Amino acid sequence: MSNDKDRNETLSGHPEKTEVIKGPGDQNKDTGELRLKEIPGLAELEARTRQPKKSTPSFFTLILVILFGFTVVVFLLNKYREDRILAIVLEEEAAVVETGRTAGTGAKTTVGDKKSPAKPAPEKYVLAEGDLSGEAPLKVRAKGALISEEKDPEIAAVGEALRTRIEMLYGIKSRRTSGGRAVTETASGMFQGFRVNSTRIKSGGKFTKNEIIVTTPSKGIFIIRDNMLDAWRNCNYEKIMQDLVNSGIEVEKQRDPVKGIVNVKLSVTTLKGIPAANDYLIARRRVGRIELDMTILRMKATLPANFSYVKKRIEFENEFYNVIKVFDEKKNPLVFVNEKDSKVWGIQTISGKYNTAKGIGIGSTLGRLKIYYPNPKIWFIKGSAPLVSVEGLAGVFVLQTEGIDFKRRVFPNSTKITSILIGGSPYLD
Questions:
Q1: What is residue 345's predicted lDDT score, i.e. its pLDDT?
Q2: How is residue 34 annotated by DSSP?
């Protein structure tokens, strides 16, 4: 009994800690065990422990992501650049089409018009060649001839002809001296290996100084003063004439005893300098590798594989034409190819890389063209870009219109060539 009593007192005085059961489902009726998984927060904790651990990206994976992103950026930039180039191409073509309308005929056609205005016939004008000649009086210096009374004037006329070419190629510089009472004109430059320096001082309507100093390719020097041979060094008549021939210059002399003058014409037979490479040479019916009447397929097969093309269909005078713009491997525009019946009908240069065998290309002056091509002819309509045709070339040189006096037919030697057309064009007859 005592033992039972002590046991009851102990239980009542020191009650053991018990678990709180929140619901009937939290305790097993048979065993009395608690369902620990139902303890608040425990299920979430167990779920977390069962989830696989997230691995941090490796350095290699990070590099791949960066490279992929860089590739995407480069692709987008290149795509933007190509789109921009094509946009510029279309703008340029529109400008060239408008220029062609004006340069070729002076007439414009509005899309949808059934009739085009009548085109005025272009005027043809043969450029004067007299300003290319050298002229000297049949006189020698007062203290006597250096060679002879016959040959001294010839050398003087050669010096005058060389000066004319230098002035046409490089222009004349003028300045006032002596308080504005005198004008000094100078010109200097190289022509076919000859170095020419010219000085003229004019005061009161008269030349107070008129001097030409010529240095030959063989380092000889001769000086013309007041249209007469006055001095020379390290050369003679035969040597000067031989230097002219060796430099690709042909000399034609004509004496006129009645007028008391000798006239000398210099014709270039061989160009001295760096000729155009075959890929950029303008020949009779060819511009570089492109030749008139070749098929468009053959043209593309002939040109480098990395060249590109933009083809556009244009309307002119109620007819449609295909014009192909050709670009090199760096997307630089080279030429317009006018297509007819799937063949090359015309070729128009738009790059300064192209030159004729005599060194004439875009940017060359009319003066230079006149020197290297005898008897050039100009075709023009007032207000339109003049066209120059020469022998030996199946095309025309297109000139700028600035500075030209169409009424008086004044075409300055400084007028520049803006394009060269070989073959046919929608804008030219």
A1: 94
A2: B
102-128+274-423: CATH topology: protein yfey like fold (2.60.460)
Q: How many CB atoms lie within 10 A of CB 224?
A: 27
Say if residues 122 and 379 touch (Cβ distance below 8 Å).
yes
Among all chains, which residue has been given the structure tokens 């489902």? 25
Task: Give pLDDT tens digits for 85-95.
Answer: 444 444 444 44
**pLDDT-derived band of residue 381, with 50, 70 and 90 as boundaries?**
confident
Closest CA to 215 of 260, 173, 247: 247
Q: 393-397 — which CB contacts under 8 Å span 24+ positions?
A: 393/282, 393/284, 393/356, 393/422, 394/284, 394/285, 394/292, 394/422, 394/423, 395/347, 395/420, 395/421, 395/422, 395/423, 396/420, 396/421, 396/428, 397/360, 397/369
Average pLDDT over residues 319-329: 93
CA distance to 71, 179, 232, per residue, from 147 (Å): 78, 40, 11
3-state secondary structure 282-312: ECCCEECCEECCCEHHHHHHHCCCCCEEEEE
Compute the distance between CA of residue 345 and CA of residue 424 in angstroms, rounded to an integer: 6
Q: Tokens for 99?
A: 């220029």
pLDDT of residue 61: 73
Contact 315, 111 (CB under 8 A): yes
Give the pLDDT confidence of 173-220 residue by residue, as tens digits: 999 876 778 999 999 999 999 999 999 999 888 889 999 999 999 999
In terms of pTM, does the model score above 0.85?
Answer: no
DSSP conformation class of 44: H
In angstroms, how far is CA 355 from the centroid of its own chain?
Answer: 12
Q: For residue 116, what are the β-bridge partners?
A: none
* Predicted pLDDT at 427: 72
Instruction: From residue 389, give the alpha-carbon distance in Å to each of 47, 323, 377, 395.
Output: 93, 23, 5, 7
pLDDT recorded at residue 409: 84
* Cα(314)–Cα(94) distance, integer angstroms: 10
pLDDT at 159 over 50: yes
CB 428 within 8 A of CB 381: no
* Residues 26, 19 contacting (CB under 8 angstroms): no
Q: Where are the domains of the chain?
A: 102-128+274-423, 138-268
